[in-house]
Amino acid sequence: MTAGSVQGDIGADSALVGREAVFAELAEILRTVRKGKVAAVVLTGPAGSGKTAVLESFLEHCRTGARGVRVLSAMGDEWEAQFALAGYSQLMLAPPLRSAKAYDGGPHLPAGPLASLSTDQVVNYASTLGTHLEGLQSHGSVVVAVDDVHKLDVESLRILTFVMRRLHGKKILFLLTLDPADAPRIPAGVLDYLTGHQVVRIPMEPLTPQQVQEVARRLHGIDLSVTAAHGLVRHTGGLPQPVTELLRELPAETWLSWFPALPPSSRLRARVRSVLDSASAALVAVAEAASVLGRSAGLHEVAAVSGVESVLDALDEGHRAGLLRLSVDQARSAVVFVEPGTAEAIYEQIVPSRRIALHRLAAEAVQPEGEKLGHRVSATPAGDQALAEELEDFAARQAAVGAWQDVATALFSASRLSLDIRARNDRLLRAVDALVGAGNVAEAQSWSAAVDALPPSPLRSSVLGYLSTVSGQNDSAQSQLEMAWRTSNPERDPQAAAQVAQRFVLHGVASWDGPMITGWAERAMSLTEPGTPAHVESEAIYGLGLYACGRLGEAEASYQRAFGHAAENAQKQRVQMGAGWLALRMDNVESALVNFESAAPTEYRGGSLRISLWAEAWLARTHLVLGNWDAAAATIARSSVRLETSRMPLIRPLLYWTAAELWSMRGDWDRARYYVSQAAVQPGTYRAMQVPASLARARFHEARADYESALAVLQPLTELDPWTEDRVSFWPWQDTYVNALVMTDQLDTADAFLTSFEGLRREREVPSDMARMAWARGRLLAAQGDPDTAREHFEAALGHLRGLNRPYLRARISFAFGQSMRRAGKRRLASSVLRAARDLYDSLGAATYVERCDRELKATGLDVGHLPDPADAVLTAARDHHLQLTAQEQAVAELVAGGATNKEAARALFVAEKTVQYHLTRLYRKMGIRSRSELAAAFRAGD
Length: 943
Known about the structure:
It holds the Pfam family AAA_16. By secondary structure, the protein is mainly α. It is built from 49 helices and 7 strands.
């Protein structure tokens, strides 16, 4: 059985989505085994991770899809583990060893409870098993599979390990599954072997959201949204078993909207019921208390709520039953449940009166005020005006420090407990508004129908406008916010009017409209006192509006004032994000890094997930600029999970622009295409969405040397995001646009655009902007036939970056410099500059441009012996024909033989298309061939 055949088989096995790599690795190991090498593999993962499914499917493929492969299998079992040699007997009785002859001369199999075997007995049993395996493998390969090896009886484990250690040069594969949590059950010597270097360990990784989407589509016919997939992974830990159980059991409409939590599966309910039915009263009480307390289930709190004196004894019992465990780290200790969904399964079986009693006890046991109030709310099923007012007061205090999730939770509870309908509606509206402020847009959207149904009011319009803004709905946001302002009364209720004005500030930054940002921010700040939420949030963006109007000095001064007004709480997060945004644009990238890293976390001081996601998206961009590309990739991976679960389209293009550019540069085209698609937006959305979405596509096309497509994407930005005397663009796309014009021979258009851009008034020169203009001008001059002046501009561009840590931009400039000089015939200069570009790209892991630098260096014809040689095949083909090829001919031959068209080859080499045709004609004549296919055949023959 080949790896290819197994891969083909599992392609049709929809039950194993996400495990293709595991199958491929097993197939490759089996291939080496069939050549006469014993191998041992352990599939590791927690319960529900799919170990057994992978094992059984692989064994089925071995039985039915492979010739000469025999399978012996056994399964560990809790009950059978008390009997001596229970596992051993499964292997000896398994087909094809079912006949009595299998035991001729073998030791007697004892019956009854486990009794320790002597060393001689272990050796005898092992000898019998080893002899049978050797006999079987003489007729073909053998796979010995043991599922749940940690549940095998001790004597069988020792015998199996004895055999595995001593068989050599045989065609035998030992394939075992192991739950790491149960590894301590295995004798130390056996465990040392199973975790040692002789055994290949393959972890069963959690399913990714994309794999969960595939499972839903292929197994259940459900088109799961990205948000729902992320939510399902979060609730199940990505374990295949609970994922498939919930997809199978819950109605399809469950996945169409936001869900706060998911119910336990029927299997988990049954398991929990079985464990609790046989548990002591103390364990039941501890489990119920932990399910009520949730994340606050420390030992002290569990003891207080459960009433159990010896909580540790109950925990020991629960640990042995696989129900719960004690988690201890440097920060805290807590009672946690082993399997996701267990807390919900326990909580739902508690009768209502006991739930209320437990929540009252919890309210006395926990310390944080918000949690105390939450338990009191859960213990109050009917209306309670006094408690509603306490919640209102708590929400006001949390709003003052920007802890918007706490505000939302408190106001939703207050709304439910309100006896007056107007108070109930008002609190509901402000709760939804706080959800948006916290960044939980998915949950806020689930309330949109309820908000729509409420009577018209300034607050209702403000909430709908705010929600439309973060959802990327430009026109809807504009109309709702205008309605909110028209119907508000700044003199009678300045706080409410200031809140509407602050929503306009956010609307303005999403539109990158400087006058809108500054005008509404000034209005909001004039209506409020420094330190209040609307004042701080407006001031945090005000500096960006000043910069967008070209007032850089004022912008920097505004952030100095804002930091003075912001207290050391969640509100400071907004100021840090805005200040980092400006610092990044002004080349204070190291300062931007510090601000974004400080603004991103929300775990300890509350704050807004929306602001955190803005900060993380810009943090990824900052890492890219500084050359910390692995850090950028990690930031993207981390924040994309939170972004998709929050369902915040406004920020998606910004984050995925960096992702698309990063993976395009690294040559991972599938991943790059995915992020380009994730960054895409519909027409009519905000400028802050459209520009980065266009840049994601443009960078992708540029990395593939498809300058026509890049130009088509960039052209609309000249109108969408202009840089004028009164408006400063934030996104640096202008040099990329000029480069695309030059590479498509639109030199007059490039000259007119660049001349206009260079002539704009700037309050202060930004080094990276100067570098981009200079290299764009150098590129254009070289194409216009003035390489000497072009060189001056390229060198000036690199000079502007002197003293700055900007490896990516320096590499881009150096590559264009070298490519332009190579085309102008300045080969030694080109070689020197291209080598510098190559080294920079190589340090970044930018494989796409390392390859292009190598191609350019070959085209210079200098020092080719020091380079990796992807064109060895064509050189070999040339030698076979006793030919001498020029550097240009080698480069053209490599590209065309690889399938490039003349136009694509010309783009890649920065030469005219007719130049490519000229070199091809010479190649054909030299090699005695007449077509591209013959050239490709000669290329392949040289491999």
